[in-house]
Here is the input.
Amino acid sequence: MAETRRERDAAGRPKNARPRDELGRPLPRGASNAMPEEPPAATPEEALERGIEHFNAGRFFQAHEAWEEGWHPAPEPERDFWQGLTQVAVGLTHRLRGNAHGSATLLSRGALKLRKYGDVHMGVPAARIAAFAEEAADRVERDGVEAPLEIPTIERENA
Here is the structure.
């Protein structure tokens, strides 16, 4: 079977990507895209801020997309920080999609990665987000995706 290569933009995103619903699930081609495309972040700082804005608005799939822009090019000491944020956002996305196992797994993985960065990293309260993700993973695992969670807002601090 011949491999089909997709044309990609400068950020590596497929140009012919299918439209998505508000939780990031692919829709049939030709459907209205419920998730507006954003231009790639110009800097890691912009990716971080954009992700925080989406996260605080409850748009966890979009937060993960923004933070992935910082994660993939990040140097090794920073990669786990970006990946941890991304995994927390994806864990919350899976919860909204009704996938308790995926949610708990990704929230736990994200917490483990963020714990490496102390209380505050790049102005982000890493320890507080990690503690939330650990508690949320336990609650979702125990009580399912309908378990109430108090999702924190992310406010940057002075490092």
Remarks:
- Helices lie at 44-56, 60-71, 76-96, 100-115, 126-143.
- The chain has a mean pLDDT of 87.
